[in-house]
Write a structure and sequence with these properties.
3 helices; alpha+beta; elongated; two-stranded antiparallel ribbon; 8 strands; 126 residues; S-adenosylmethionine decarboxylase; six-stranded antiparallel β-sheet; single chain
Length: 126
């Protein structure tokens, strides 16, 4: 009998967002970024473990939400009206795409770019 290959479902979904032409004041507000991250975790139906926010001087904010399923992170450049976001969730019980849509809306990006990667896919021989 000849063995065939079968793809195993992904271990996780990794979404990379580049958000251009965002509202500058939102990108420079640690309070707004914290609120957006907390709500994005809820939108993804993920479980928040910890949340860290750092405000840079003179501008910019970085935030990291550690979730049971992996993480959501953001780094902002208000002077460029740009934010880089990373959403990575493991398993099949979360909705990282909903978190991405939510963040795009909340930062009011006029030019979002989204890349979705299925992580941990491999082929098994049967």
């Amino acid at each position: 009998m000849k063995k065939s290959l079968s793809l195993v479902p992904p271990n996780g979904i990794h979404i990379i967002l580049d958000l251009y032409e965002c509202v500058e004041s939102l990108l420079n507000s640690p309070e707004k970024i914290e609120q957006i991250l907390k709500e994005a975790v809820k939108e993804a139906k993920a479980t928040l473990i910890d949340l860290k926010i750092h405000k840079f001087s003179p501008q910019g904010v970085s935030g990291f939400a550690l979730i049971s399923e992996s993480h959501i992170s953001i780094h902002t450049w208000p002077e460029k009206k740009y934010a880089g976001i990373d959403i990575y969730t493991c398993g099949n019980k979360t909705f990282p795409e909903k978190a991405a849509d939510f963040i795009i809306k909340k930062l009011k990006s006029q030019k979002p770019s989204l890349i979705k990667i299925e992580r941990g896919i491999y082929a098994e021989k049967f």
